[in-house]
Amino acid sequence: MRKSHTILIILFVFTTTYSQEKKKSTLKPSKIGFLYNYGTNENLIFDDVDYTYSTNTFKAQAFYKLGNWKNLNFELIVQPQVQFLDHQLINEQFVLPSEENYLEKRAEFTKAKTMNLYGIEFGIAVKKQLTEKLNFQGTISLGFNYIDTRTERIAKGFTFIENFSVGFSHQTFTNSFIYLGTNFGHVSNLNFQQPNNGYNILGLEIGYSYALN
């Protein structure tokens, strides 16, 4: 995951710098909103039998116009968030006898846990207009976060989150928009701490945004 993290960091630094330098008005978002996401590692695409993991994520959103190219519109989405996580190790053999205090760790990690993740995420959204009020939207994003509980898969403390989302944005009223989509998400810490096996989820999300004058 090191290469993907590096590419995403370079992309976000470049686009954020460009959007800030383009004009002073970029400090004011074009839209504000919120988004709810439910995701789990137990799904039809992948299902790691070693553990269970699910998240209820609540994001505040600020949208900034980056411009357009051909028939595509680009936005920067800034998303402070909190994630409420449920996790449990199912296969105690995942904690190897070679690890220090492995029996104590097995006892600790096989208990069901409720955890929290706090952070901020930066997304680049690309929109393609399908009808007068309907847009197809794809978003790639990177977040910097803190997770408050250690598990067999990731250490307590600093983490990255990566998300790739696709969905549809529909204008319901003059300044109001509803978004429905799905996402693939990954949490890890780039080996700043051990362990760093991370989590993967597939999720569904719904959002509402309001265009500012």
Question: Care to describe what's here?
Answer:
- With 213 residues, this protein is mainly beta.
- The protein is 14% helix and 56% strand.
- The protein has helices spanning 2-22, 102-109; strands spanning 31-40, 51-69, 72-89, 113-129, 134-147, 157-171, 176-188, 199-211.
- The longest helix is centred in the first third of the chain and has 21 residues, at 2-22.
Short description:
It is built from two helices and eight strands; from the N terminus they run αβββαβββββ. With 213 residues, it is mainly beta. The model is unreliable at 17-21 (pLDDT under 50).
Reading the helices and strands in chain order gives HEEEHEEEEE
- In angstroms, what is the radius of gyration? 19 Å
Anisotropy-based shape: elongated
**Separation of the first and last Cα atoms:** 40 Å
Lateral strand order in the biggest sheet: 1-2-3-4-5-6-7-8
Largest sheet: 8 strands, antiparallel, barrel
List segments where confidence is low: pLDDT < 50 over at least 5 consecutive residues. 17-21
Structural class label = mainly beta
Number of helices: 2
How many beta-strand elements? Answer: 8
Helix content: 10-25%
Beta-strand content? over 45%
Task: Estimate the mean pLDDT confidence.
Answer: 88
